[in-house]
Automatic annotation (TrEMBL):
InterPro entries: TET_plant (IPR044991), Tetraspanin/Peripherin (IPR018499). This is Tetraspanin-2. Pfam families: Tetraspanin. Its main location: membrane. It is found in: Membrane. It comes from the Eukaryota. The keyword Transmembrane applies. Belongs to the tetraspanin (TM4SF) family. The keyword Transmembrane helix applies. The chain crosses the membrane at residues 6-31, 43-65, 71-104, 232-248.
Length: 265
């Protein structure tokens, strides 16, 4: 009868210990310059880690000391956490499904079109009400200026594995035909009217292509890349939590059975 209780206590202790690196990795992810510019997306991993820590601690105490009240609270919280993770996972797959990335001949990096991403992401992140603050944050982050210290020649730059934000915000679109001087200095476009971003590009370090649609697309491409990686963690976490929840239900049933048998005696 006590076997499921002990297993539940052990699994929740492991979940409690695993929540510590989850919180640490979430804090590191939130400190990245590109994520600092989108405040409401900065802390989901930290929030999930803290929630798992609190719920698993409740489950450990309830299972180890046979506290049916705590086990009941634990099961309710665990069910809500599983539903939350399931909703988050479905949302992440839906909004990060479309990609605006496309290959450019002669370039190792990809470039990005804003129209290729989901409408939800475009509306909630690159809309006129939000982009002004994000644009100012990107300009102050130092993401683009550091490229000047990493790449000297055009060959080095064209062979670089640029991040989506660096590709979209720090240089003009390749289709414009700008001549490379350094990673953030480009002159003499040959197709200045082929794309609206071609006329928006500015060699001023505080301007660059931060007002371009390609920069907005690059930011969305960066978010998509990171969230697609996190989807795997969400799937593994969801499977483990469902497994622990089912064992926890057995532990709760056993605890109630033991309490009822004592009451009859």
């Amino acid at each position: 009868m006590a076997l499921s209780n002990n297993i539940t206590a052990f699994l929740n202790f492991l979940a409690f210990m695993c929540s510590i690196p989850i919180i640490a990795s979430g804090t590191w992810l939130a400190s990245k310059p590109d994520n600092e510019c989108i405040h409401w997306l900065r802390w989901p991993v930290v929030f999930i880690g803290i929630t798992i820590m609190l719920v698993s601690l409740t489950g450990f105490i309830g299972a180890y000391w046979r506290k049916e009240g705590l086990l009941g609270v634990y099961l309710v919280c665990m069910a809500l956490l599983i539903v939350l993770l399931l909703v988050l996972l479905v949302l992440a797959f839906v909004v990060t499904g479309p990609t605006g990335a496309y290959m450019v001949p002669g370039r190792a990096y990809r470039e990005y079109r804003l129209e290729g991403f989901s409408y939800w992401l475009r509306d909630h992140i690159t809309g006129p009400d939000d982009w002004g603050n994000i644009r100012a944050c990107l300009a102050d982050s130092g993401i683009c200026p550091k490229l000047n210290n990493e790449y000297v020649t055009a060959q080095q730059f064209f062979a670089a594995d640029l991040s989506p934000i660096q590709s979209g915000c720090c240089k003009p679109p390749t289709i414009c035909g700008y001549q490379y001087m350094n990673p953030t200095l480009w002159i003499n476009p040959t197709n200045a009217v082929v794309d609206a971003d071609c006329s928006i590009w500015n060699n001023d370090p505080s301007q660059l292509c931060y007002n371009c649609d390609s920069c907005k697309a690059g930011l969305l491409g960066n978010l998509r890349k990171e969230w697609r990686k996190s989807n795997l963690i969400l799937i593994i976490t969801l499977v483990i939590l469902i497994w622990v929840y089912l064992i926890g239900c057995c532990a709760y049933k056993n605890t109630l059975t033991k309490a009822n048998s004592k009451g009859h005696k």
